[in-house]
Write a structure and sequence with these properties.
heterodimer; A: seven-stranded mixed β-sheet; four-stranded antiparallel β-sheet; B: mainly beta; six-stranded mixed β-sheet; three-stranded antiparallel β-sheet; about 0% helix; globular
Chain lengths: ~120, ~110
């Protein structure tokens, strides 16, 4: 069974940093591209970051570019999101996600339960 | 990276069919056959209903179907059931490892 478990969220002041983690199980982590998607309280979904299966290519939404960095460690079956220079508008539940197949191009099939990041001013 | 446009709410009676539209641009929905749809219940993670415009993952009932014409994609739910009451989101690949979601549609089963 595919499982994704996020951690690392919390309450942080504006300008602070956090490192989110997503531990995977039930599949060969290194065979799959991965992504982060966030959802602000009462708002819609927003794609945040993507990383290829070998970690050679990454991309981030314009709203977080230069502040967020996605990475992965296949030896630890883990995906990470380093979040710097946090803003109040970054307050959201952060989900890690995987596609049904090796890419996520067509859609995000498997999701974690999410970890809440709350930024205070 | 502007959000795709969805109606804020739709409604229907049990047994009826409802359609939710998702309008993008020639750079996302119109450019790729990579539109997906999600159902989200309160407090839960999204659930994939449709991927690659028309395909259903294992376990998703065939009451859910997807289509696309030009820059607009649609999700149709037939034989509406009370348990279908939820928020629905569309998403499109937008090239160069980027994705864009719609603003979400709240479905009410009357």
């Amino acid at each position: 069974e595919v499982q994704l478990v996020e951690s690392g969220g919390g309450v942080v002041q504006s300008g602070g940093s956090l490192r989110l983690s997503c531990v995977s199980s039930g599949f060969i982590f290194g065979d799959y591209d991965m992504a982060w998607v966030r959802q602000a309280p009462g708002k819609g979904l927003e794609w945040v970051s993507h990383i290829t299966r070998d970690g050679s290519a990454t991309n981030h939404a314009d709203s977080v570019k230069g502040r967020f960095t996605v990475s992965r460690d296949s030896a630890k079956n883990s995906l990470f999101l380093q979040i710097n220079s946090l803003r109040v508008e970054d307050t959201a539940v952060y989900y890690c996600a995987r596609g049904l197949y090796s890419t996520v191009t067509g859609g995000f099939c498997y999701w974690g339960q999410g970890t809440l990041v709350s930024v205070s001013s | 990276q502007s959000a795709l446009t969805q109606p804020r709410s739709v409604s229907g009676s049990p047994g009826q069919s409802v359609a939710i539209s998702c309008t993008g641009t020639s750079s996302d929905v119109g450019a790729y056959n990579y539109v997906s749809w999600y159902q989200q219940l309160p407090g839960k993670a999204p659930k994939l209903l449709i991927f690659d415009v028309t395909r259903r993952p294992p376990g998703v009932p065939d009451r859910f179907s997807g289509s696309k014409s030009g820059n607009t994609a649609s999700l149709t739910i037939s034989g509406l059931q009370a348990e279908d009451e939820a928020d629905y989101y569309c998403c499109s690949h937008a090239g160069s490892y980027t994705w864009v979601f719609g603003g979400g549609t709240s479905l009410t089963v009357l």
